[in-house]
Amino acid sequence: MSKQTHILIAEDEEFVRVPLGMFLERSGYKVSFAVDGEEALEKLKELSPDVVLSDLNMPKVNGFQLLEETVKTRPRLPVIVISGAGTLEAVLRALRSGAWDYLEKPIIDYDLLLHCIESVLEKRKLMQMAERYQQLFEQTKRARTEEREEELRIRKIIEEQLLKSKQEWEETVNFLPDPIVLYTRDHRIIRLNAAMAEALGVDAADAVDMRLCLFDNCQGRTADSCPHNLLMETEEPITSEFFSQKSGKYYEVKVLPFYELWDSRVSGSVLHARDISERIAAQKKETELQTRILQSQKLESVGQLASGIAHEINTPTQYIGSNVDFLEEAFSDISTAVTAMLKDPAIKDSDLGKKIYSLLADADWEFLEDEIPAAIQQTREGIRQVTRIVQAMKDFSNPGSKEMQEANLNRIIDTTVTVARNEWKYDAELKLDLDPDLPPVVCLADEIGQVILTMIVNAAHAIAALHNNSEQKEKGCIGIVTTHDEENVVVKITDTGVGIHPDIIDKIFDPFFTTKEVGTGTGQGLAIAFDVVHDKHGGSITVDSSLGEGTTFTIRLPKFRKTL
């Protein structure tokens, strides 16, 4: 019966230490605990564990001190660092100090922990085998004076053991899901497993002795960024991350020195790659989510402020409107009275009448009689415009429902155009061609409004950029057209701006991608617009652009809500 593997957990945080120990015990391991580095050093002497799981930040004796003492006293004891520090500096220091592997807290995937433990145990086993082979070879050298037959017999034993080791490697490592490859100093492949052959896009049998690297920028040439080359210079283990164009995956790559069997010279490297695409995707998704939450909170705050301002403007506007009505009515009465007085012969021919005529002439009554009603009418039109802007501000700042509801898309566009007028009025004329028979759309009205606002603002900026880069000073044009077909309501937003370069047009919906100067763009507007249209509404958003001529964005929203 094989000995049960004994694991020592050095962790000062109970809520991490206890669940970790329970999981490992359920997985068939014998577990001991140490609440700090000092206790861990004592239990290393007492218990002689097979593996040590150690935190870095601990009282009395920290993880680095524990690691250095363990390497000094028991260099073949695997130490796996588990820490929440998470910095590249901490990782590199731990690995350079002798850690066999590094995991981040909190550990979400315990299968990854088991894989890590099994990997270091397998590595220790292989190292022990290598040590035995080394010892056996030393014995062989001391016995060179013996008869040839004995030397041949021993050589045969060694060859059989090496063959067995190779077979064991092929039977175990070849079936590991992580890509693994063994390189010579000049970057030629000695051996690789099936996962690495797949990642490199080659046949495993044909790859031997080829100069080929998992890092795309290292293929067939030396590159300063290649971790293998860096290891050949420093002879220190290296860990890095990269994206493979061939497989379309992100990898965490650990490169370890590979020593000659008969001496301590570094003859190559062992490269172990772990697929971290899901982790990177989760991190990106979390970053995008946080950015969108902050954007939503910011917009909500601006909306509340705009709603308050609209309310404050509304009250004095009503006062002005009422007073204009009064002035219009009063002037009409005054004008009627003056006209009647001027037509009365009794007044006209009297001395008083002549004096009144003189006063009216001095006041330029004929001009006032024509211009005052016109001024009152212009004031009334201005009040109506203010009222429209205030109502648009109130509609746009209304947080709206969090549920899908029928909404008038034309009204959303009209409101957004009014609110955003200050963004486009200096550089462009905005023309609306809204289908009067456009059916209601089941949507999140406030989020669709934000999409339209993003498109209008981007169009205005594109036109401004064209003006800044040329001598053309005429206003550009922004056009918004709505139509519909059997399945979709369609919105087309066209501008006569600078256009989008073909090399980047496929990236414009990527989070954080922006062509604007630092401080003028976050790279989130179009990414959020794509999420709202595509992910939340089951629609589509496409772009067609000609450099120097303009851009058209086409938004399609389904008439009927789709289940995504």
Question: Explain this structure to me?
Answer:
The chain has four domains: 6-123, Rossmann fold (3-Layer(aba) Sandwich); 176-275, 2-Layer Sandwich (Beta-Lactamase); 295-397; 405-558, Heat Shock Protein 90 (2-Layer Sandwich), CATH 3.30.565. 51% of the residues lie in helices and 19% in strands. Helix 5 runs antiparallel to helix 6. The protein has helices at residues 14-26, 37-47, 63-73, 88-96, 110-142, 148-172, 194-200, 204-207, 227-234, 277-343, 345-348, 351-362, 365-397, 409-419, 421-424, 445-468, 525-536; strands at residues 6-10, 30-34, 51-54, 79-83, 101-104, 180-184, 189-192, 238-244, 249-259, 266-275, 405-407, 428-434, 441-443, 476-484, 488-495, 540-546, 550-558. It is built from 17 helices and 17 strands. The longest helix is centred in the middle third of the chain and has 67 residues, at 277-343. It has 564 residues and is an alpha/beta fold. Strands 2-1-3-4-5 form a five-stranded parallel sheet, sandwiched between helices. Strands 7-6-10-9-8 form a five-stranded antiparallel sheet, with helices on both faces. The protein has a five-stranded mixed sheet with strand order 12-14-15-17-16, with helices on one face. The radius of gyration is 39 Å and the shape is elongated.
